[in-house]
Amino acid sequence: QLQLVESGGGLVQPGGSLRLSCAASGFTLDYYTIGWFRQAPGKEREGVSCISSSSGTTNYADSVKGRFTISRDNAKNTVYLQMNSLKPEDTAVYYCNAVIRGYDYWGQGTQVTVSS
Question: Going residue by residue through the chain (116 aa), what tens digit of pLDDT does each one get?
């Protein structure tokens, strides 16, 4: 069974850091492009970052460039999102995604709350 499981969310003060994890089972992560998305209350889901298969090319939304870093650990079959200098507007549920053979796979999401 193909599955993605996110973890690492929580409550953090503005300027703080969190590292989110996206662990895959049932397939090999580095064969596919993996994306991180987020959805804030009352807003549409938006793309945050992605890392491509094989070459590992990364892309970031303008709103997180210079603050977030996506990476992949093939041995652990896990993709990470290191989030630094967090802002209240980063508050959202964060999801990881993989498109495999034309089908969208999503994790259950992990809540990130940035507040003092």
Answer: 899 999 999 999 999 999 999 999 999 988 999 999 999 999 999 999 999 997 889 999 999 999 999 999 999 999 999 999 999 999 999 999 999 999 999 999 999 999 99
Tokens of 114: 């940035």
Q: Is the Cα torsion angle 39, 23, 71, 99 positive or negative in sign?
A: negative
The residues that bridge with 98 in the sheet, in sequence order, are 34, 105
CA–CA gap between residue 57 and residue 21 (Å, rounded): 18
Report d(CA 45, CA 13) in Å as an integer.
23
Q: Residue 42 corresponds to which amino acid?
A: G
DSSP state of 57: -
CA dihedral (53, 55, 60, 66) positive or negative: positive
